[in-house]
Hints:
alpha+beta, 6-stranded mixed sheet, 3 domains, globular, Creatine Amidinohydrolase, Chain A, domain 1, about 35% helix, Creatine Amidinohydrolase, about 20% strand, 17 helices, about 575 residues
Amino acid sequence: MEYIARMDLLREVLAKEDISAMIIPSNDPHFGEYVPEYYKTIKWLTGFTAEAATLVITQTGAALWTDSRFFVQAESQLQGTGVELMKLKVEGTPTISQWLKENLQEGDIVAMDEELFSYQEYTAMVDDLSPLIPSLIEDPFDSIWEDRPPLTFNPVRYLDESVTGEGVASKHSRLVEKLSGELPFAYIITALDEICWLCNIRGTDIEYNPLVLSYCVVNSENIHLFLREEVVPSDVVSKLSSEGVIFHPYEEIGRFLRNLPKDCVRIYSSGKITAKNFLASMENIYQNGPFAPFIPDPMTGGVLSNMKAQKNSVEIEGFKRAYIEDAKAQIKFFAWIRENIDNGITEHQAALKLIEFRSECPDYLGESFHPIIAFGSNGAIVHYEPTAENSSIIGKNGFLLIDTGAQYTYGTTDTTRTLALGELTAEQKDDFTAVLKGMIDLSIAKFNKGTRGAQLDILARGPIFKRGKLYMHGTSHGIGHALCVHEGPQSVRMEENSVILKPGMVLSNEPAVYIEGEYGIRIENTIVVTPWQTNQFAEFYQFETITALPINTDAVNFENLDSIEKAWLEDYNAKCATLLK
């Protein structure tokens, strides 16, 4: 089989260096959710296409670790490859270190690509793998991957303050103020969305994400931006230069880090830093005696990431405008679905039609993630992706789950609706209503300053728990402004996240029910943290819902909603109707 042959090619390369195994993450040097095709080595080796996995290959076997979103997908795509599926957070699943120790001998060498592991991850693996020996290596795939897709560097565009609400110099000044206790410092940024936000630039180097392949190093005087300057229009170069940005070639980041003054405090941002770049930044220090420390970001979740997460009023208005435009397209789409249900349309055809409707807006820039349009049992696959080759016909009875989002010049959207097509069972209606209750109950939450997302998660899960059911993914993720549809550091989920919720933070609100082999239900709005009231006890916040798409009530069992939930639903749909006139 093709994939087995490819893994054998890698084994041959490793064997020549006396390497017994290699750990391959679904990363690039910027540690983003989506990576360029150039770095999709797991896909090339195994055929597994999801964006979150770690593959381990030994000379005699292979295993892949992924989370619950991709269990069904992995079981299908890994068939016949000889790769064993390891289900994260499932009792009895060994860790990568445990599995390697069971399959290797003491002293065996385990390889890790120096550009795909953060230094922190690498040092942790050194401890975890003992008595095995971790070894950082250069990318081995160039020698075995014929026709490997090249890295692409596309034209960069600049976002005016009328869209961002703040100029680059102002953002730099605020960042320096927050880091001033570490002067002199070099704040090393690898996360592409942080760089794009700081420099008010956007691009198309990463699928679905308006990002620019780049690095950034900030000090008290300047922002040093590493990218392909030839793709930056001259007027943008002039504008950014006037705001304190100094341009460098993308490939020069290592040399720049090696030449940092030894008394400069090196700080790595929440985007982490590769083992390769960390060691480069320390090279000059080790050769020249005493040195300043290399420290992690001083703020939980990252200083820059927290700044980006708290949207200003201009950004929030951009979000609202984007959601109105998106709702207009989706309403046309829902009508098209119902009008064409007898014509044997597929999920993939439906996805293309929604893109067509969105494209009617001149400010539409593309989808913010692969459209998830899933009928019936496909809805139980959390990140199902219909394609022209693998797509079901949308039937006349059951649920059609539609989770899609778009990029507009002034905002990013992410919305899920589950349409009821034909007759439903009482069980299906009660499940739908439980998901709706959870979404509403989080929407109307009031909470005090200092609250963390994990403290609110039960509001969304509670009604679903009462039915003895469960969804394994988070309830809320952050959403970037004209940036990545998934961003941190904030979240609402069962697992603890010490980042507190602050005004201006934008999040999804998406409880769900999945019945494997039968159906999936998810209802998702976008909410923003806003002030509510301050009294003698505390400062309180609430959520404002900014999604403008009505919620269809065909599947609602109104007997299961209390009076507050009924009032919220009626009021929400009425507000949407007003916005969309």
